[in-house]
Each structure stands twice: as structure tokens, then as C-alpha cells.
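Standup notes
- HV: blocked on the assembly model, inputs below
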Amino acid sequence: MSIQKTEKYDLPKAYEFSEIEQRWYERWLSEKSFRARTDDGRPSFSIVIPPPNVTGVLHIGHALNNTLQDVLVRYHRMKGDNTLWVPGTDHAGIATQNVVERQLAGEKLSRHDLGREAFIERVWAWKEEKGGTIINQLKRLGASCDWDRERFTMDEGLSRAVREVFVRLYKEGLIYKGDYIVNWCPRCHTALADDEVEHDPTEGKLYHIRYPYADGSGYVVVATTRPETMLGDTAVAVHPEDERYQHLKSVGISLPLTGRVVPVVFDHHVQREFGTGALKVTPAHDRDDYEIGLRHDLPRLKVMDDLGVMNEAAGVYAGLDRFACRRIVVADLEAQGLIDKIEDYQHAVGKCYRCATVVEPTTSKQWFVSVKPLAAKAVAAVEEGRIKLYPNTWYRTFYAWMENIRDWCISRQIWWGHRIPAWTCEECRKLIVEVEAPDVCPDCGSTRLNQESDVLDTWFSSALWPFSTLGWPEQTRELAVFYPTSVLITSFDILFFWVARMMMMGLHIMNEVPFHDVYLHALVRDKYGKKMSKSTGNVIDPLVMIEQYGTDAFRFTLTAFAAQGREIRMDEERIDGYRRFINKLWNAARFAQMHLKEADPGITELAAEPKGLSLAHRWILSRLSTTIAGVREALDNYNFNDVASISYQFVWHEFCDWYLEWIKSDLFSEELTRRDEAKAVLLTVMEQVLKLMHPVIPFVTEEIWSQLPGRRDSIMRASFPETVEQWTDTRAETTMNLLMDVISGLRTIRTEAEVHPSANIEAMLICPDEEQRRILEQYADGIRSMVRAASLRIEASGVVPDDAGHGLVQGVELVVPLKGMIDVAGELEKLAREQVKLQKELERVVGKLSNAQFINNAPEAVVAKERDKETEIRTRLAKTAESMERLSKLR
RNA sequence: GGGCGAAUAGCUCAGCUGGGAGAGCAUCGGCCUUACAAGCCGAGGGUCACAGGUUCGAUCCCUGUUUCGCCCACCA
């Protein structure tokens, strides 16, 4: 490869992405190209970003999520819609608090050393300093968010929205404070929602303990995995129809270690088959026991405090950590001979999704949202099609989940977050719930008011995101233009955490859906289908990929992988493959640029009405039109992978492989009109392709676009391609298909006979069909140059010489005389295989055609197709036999 | 236990409402042919998991089985 060649062109030989990406992104920013438009009369298109945690760093899931959003946003912006993409971050209560607490721990401090206010200041300081990481990383990805509208869930405006909603729901009776059993994380000091608890299968023990009857007449064996909770037992439960225990009706149980006497209750919840069929009941420390306790009016005895340490109610065990207590309780029971047996036991243990500490179910006062009435509105909106889910496999899951929904515990015992806007009057105990802090108690006038110390679940503010980011509760122009948003793009794992709650809040507060469509994309896994995790070491870091392969290649890969499935197996090799594609496009542009440099951009008008143009031009324009239609349809239906594959196929295998090769002779021609026509169509196709692909690969398309002839504004402001009716030309496509088949067929003959690629051949085409013959004659020069043929004879009939390479496409016989170059044995073998295949196929077709049922029931067109097939197979069989006969003579 | 999803070429995956199996990568052969060797031209490779059923016709619809994955609930 020579350096001299390169000098002829203005573009470097290989696409160098890093400088180009940086340069263009800065320019887009400085030109405010991402700014939302609110022109009257245009359709609007809006997306709110799923706000990443402010503590977050860009992982591959974000990369996928935001690439898909950017693809849609850029598409709609080019279509001329009023397009808005709102960026922002989530304050991520526990996660952020943990980060800062870790920082403090490094200074040997806890948050309690600082106190609440100082700690929160410290978190804000951290946010100002480090919180922007993921935003900058999104910029590397090319995200075209309207950055001037960046929001944070703890911003003043959004916090106001949170309080407004809280107060409204409270006053409507949809928020209440209640005693409830919650999942308590003793490390994070907070209650966790059910879906914040992860259940890992864990090896544990199942302890079978003897509970003596109060009258000393015997004992019943109960089984538990958490023996320390027995200190809080307030009953033993058995199934009402369990014959084994009918006699217990009048017997009390003397609880070991404490000597308390507890009753036996009869409850259908108890599984007779499990263990002994007797269940110890600890209403204060077990979800199911809590329910049993309610049904039988049992006392709730809390034996642990918020740190997981046994409290005074645990008597002599007070002050022990729950796990230490477990060991000692077991030892004590053993000493008294009350352990029946201890088994190894695998069970699911609930763990905190943030810190993996074993969760302790416990009772406490918490705030709740009554979600049933809200859920009903969401379900109705989905049922009525006001919100559509893509892929549609999610409907069932959605409905099932919404039916079983339980009240939402929204209070969290941490400091970082929206503090609950409720105050208790120290004098008269009145609970005051207001948007702004009250000065005095409205009932007694006392100024001794204490605000709730709990903050709200982070998802509470996220649920308001689609309207809080647009300025609610103010009635802003943004709300008027952009709410409801067009589509929400997110990962399916937060369908219920977040998506469903946005539906509820949007419908209830705004009286309108928050978005029309929900596109749920897959989870990205490694190439073996494993979850990516730091500990497994299989993480693919988007920023590393961007540096290695370029943002465009990376984005194209994510788009290509985004089929409507549930998982994506990311393989780095694919990224490299698409990097080559970007390079291919780049080189096609170099080639175009070499010819178009001096061209007047106005020449594209020649392509507007292609009737008079030569075949290849009409063909590529027709294919382009189909491609545009395909890409638009795919984009409109969120079939992102189709967007990628349709454009890939067109650019590489039609535009580059065939069109560019075919028009070289035109571009180098002495005839001015031939040259101009070629330039006109070449430029047209280049422009359309760049615009078509810009949403997916913004950088390379902008760079090439800027190099094309003429003074050019950013491609971002160019209009998205539309199909052009005049371009559709099925005749040109059929004709071109014939030529391509003939050319490929002749090339195959060359290759199989091992003719050197630079050697010329003589070729003959036997073509009985007059129309086809006319076409072949017309384009004989093109065929000759594409297959390196010194001569090309086209005949209506003829005899195939014995020592000729032979092929058959679309009824045309391809003949290449090859003296002594044919691998006779090899060819014969191949033909024999072919023959077997054809015969099998023929049998099938004939069988079908002789079936009266088929003839009568199948559509006309299908039957006709089968008939054609039969004729074709018979011809091919005959030609195969002829070829075999010919070759046999050469042996 | 309940629900959902997947099973198609060596690998990663497409295949819309049933009518002759596709792509990319990998493999094999040949080429520095004037945009691209990060390339070009060719080739091989699949009982569409298995068993039934519906149908003139099933990769596609139905039933069951197997394997894998996920979600929900957790029998203490």
C-alpha cells in the first residue's frame, strides 16, 4: 500500500474518531444544537431521561439506554418536531448517603458526629464536586440532551413538587402513617421496600426446638431458622384441621428460656407438611407471623432494637447482637435438652440491596401510600391503550403485578432525601402536614413543632420526574408543550420500581398519562449470558469501548443489539466489527469526495427525477428509497436492531459493493453527462445515507457531511430522509438483479477453476429469453468489466463446449471455456450433490402439486409459485445432467 | 409454588399476522483489482431442542417433555 495514493484525497485513509468526536461535540454544545424548540404548530417529541444516580458512573446499561434515547431524539429533531430531551440525576438517598458515610469513615467520623445539618451540607458538597461524573460521561456518548435544563431530584423546584404531592395525597387520605412490619436494615438504619430486599439462597440451619406444655404433660416441636426470635414469641400456631394437635386447644405453651406462657392458635396459614406442622409465632419479627398475630389478636413483642441488638425485652440476652444471641440461645436450649435436632438447611435470606446486610423484619411506624386507587388508574390507562408497552410481552406481567400490589412504604430512616413535610405539635400532639413549614400549631398555637425525621423513598421523587422536571407545580409553557412525554425508554427491571409509579402519579396528579409509549429494553449481559459485575470481572466499560472503537461504533453496536428480547449478550468482537463498518463508510466517503470535490451541490437535482438516468443510478435510488422506508418504520416501532441492519446492508452490500464499483467507469468517463449523472446520484445517495444514519452514528456522519461540496449547516439541522416516490423502480431492480446474478455466477466459475483474479476470461451467455437477452446485451460492457472478461458473447442458443465452466442463473446459462483448468473430479462431485438436492426438492414439489387438497385450498399465487418451481427444478436437473455428461468426457 | 422468557449455522443473534431458512463474526480457498488488506472475490456449514396435534402446508399456532435464564412469593 502506497502513501502516494493517500495524498490524492483530502480525508485521511482511516477514520480517526477521537479528535473528530471531541471537536463536533464541543461545536454542538457551543451552537446550542440540542436546545429544545417550542415553535407553534409543530408536533412535539419529548423524553425525560431515566435519571441516573448522582453517585453513578456510566455502565453499559446506561450506555444502551441513552444511546436509544439519543437515536430517537436525533431522529425526531431532524424530522422537524419540537424535540426535548430532559437530562438530570437522582439524589439516590441511601446510595449517596453511603458514599459520604464511607468518606467520613476514612476520617474516623460517623454521620452522628456531624449531626444532621452538617452531614447534609457535606453531602451537597460531595454532590457539587463529584456528582457531575455521569453527566460528563453521557456527553462522551454523544447524548444530545438539552443540557441547560438539567435537573436534580433535590433541586428546589423538584423538592417543592415532592412536598405538594405529599400534602395533596395526605389530604386525600392516600398517605397514612401506620404501624407495620417492615424490612429493616440494621446497618442502613432504615426500612426497605419489598423490592429493595434481595433474596439469596443461603446455607443455614433449621433448629427444631421443644416447647413444653404449660402443664408439663409433654411438648411440641417447632422449627425455626432464627432461634433468637423465640424470645419474642407470643404464640404457637397449628393448622385447624391437624388431628395431631387437636388436644392443644386448651393447653398453653411454656416458652423455654423465658418461662412465659403463650397460647396455641389455629391458623390456616400453617403448612401441615412442613417440619412438625407447628409454628412458633413472633408477630414483631416476621411478616407472616405479623399477619397471624393480627388475626388472633396476639401481642407484638419486639426483642431487638434498630441496630439488630437484643433489647430489654430479651431479658438476660439484652445487649447481645442478634447473631451472637442466636448461638447463646441455642447453647442454652441444648443445655436444657430442648433441642430436638439441628439440620443443615438452605433457604432464601432477605438481604439489603445496598449493603447486603441480612434484613430483620420488624414493626415500626412508617408512612404509606395507599396504592390501590392509584394503581387502578394506571391499569385503566394501559388497558385503554393510552399507554402502550413495547415489547408487548410486558402487558401480562404488568397487570399481574398491579393486581397484587401492596401499599407502598415511603418513609426511610436516613438523612439524605426529601424530609417528610409533617410536624407534630409537642403540646397537643396534632399532626400537621403542609407544603411550607408552619410556625405555630393551628390547634393550640404552640410553637413547639417537631418535623418528622424520616425522609421519603427516593422513588417518590422519581415518580414525579416527568412533570416535576417540566416545572410543575408552576403551569409552565414546557408542561403545555411537552407533557405528556412521548416515550419512556428504560430497562425492564425498574418497570415496577419506577415506571408504574410514574403512571400512578402522572395520572393522579396531572390527570394525564406521563408518557404515551414505554419501551423496555433488555439487560446487557456478558457474551456468556452472565450478569456483568465487578467481582466476576466481566464488566465491559463503555468509556473504554469508546476510546478503543469510537463512540459511533459503540453506539451502532448497542443499536444493533437492541432487539426486543430480554437480554443482550454483549461481545466486544461485535464492536470491532462495527468499527470496521464505520471505517467502510468513511472510505466510501473518501471515494465520493475524490470525485465530488469540485462538484456543484446543485447537481443533485438530476437525481430528483431519475427516469432518464442509467440503470445503476435508477437501481440505487430505488434501493435507497426502500431503505429509507425500512429505517423509518423501524424507528417508529422501536425496532432498533432493524435500523442498524437495514442501513448496514444497504451501505455495505448495495452501495459499496455494487453501486460504487459499477459507477467507476462513469466517474472516469470522458463523457461529461455520464460523469455528471454519476456525481449527482452519488452525492444524493451520500447525503441521504448520512442523514439516515446520523441518529445512530452522529459523529462520523457530521464529519463527512461537513466535507461534502457546498457550504453546509450541521447535519443535525438537515431534514430526515423521506421516501421519494419517483425513486421506486421495480424494473430497475429486476434488471439489476439479473446482472448481479450473472456477474456473481461468472465470478464463481472463475474462482472455482482457480483462474487468477487478474487474468481475463472469455465468456458466453446462452439466453433463450428475448427480454433478458436484450438486457444482457445492453449492459455487456458492465458485465465484462465486473468479471474481467476479454469478450462476452450473448446467444439465444448454443452448445456448451466440453471443457467449459458452466453455471445457470435465472434461466441464463453461463459458459466460460477453460482449457484444462477445470477440476473435473471436484466438479462432478459437486454436481452429484446438487443433483440429489434437486431431486429431493422436486419430489416435495411434485408431491404437493399432485395433492388435490393443496390445489383446492392454497391460494392461487402459492400454487402458481410451486408450478414455476417445478419447471425451474426440472430445467436445472436437465442442465446438471448435461454438465455431468460433458465433464465425464474429460476424464 | 406461581408467572414470564429463551432453545434457529461453530459463536452472537434476526426471522412481522403459517406458503421455498437469514445476517455479522468465525472457518476454508484465492487476491495489494486505481475508496477501504480495518479491504475485495468466492466457498462450505442448519432434521429451526424433543414428541404429539391442528392444517393442503408448521421454525412460526396448540398440547406435553427436556434444558437454560429471569421475575414474584417465600414453608417457619
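- HV (later): unblocked. Confidence is low (pLDDT under 50) at residues 1-7 of chain A. The CA atoms of residues 141 and 467 of chain A lie 26 Å apart.
- Next: hand off to the docking folks.
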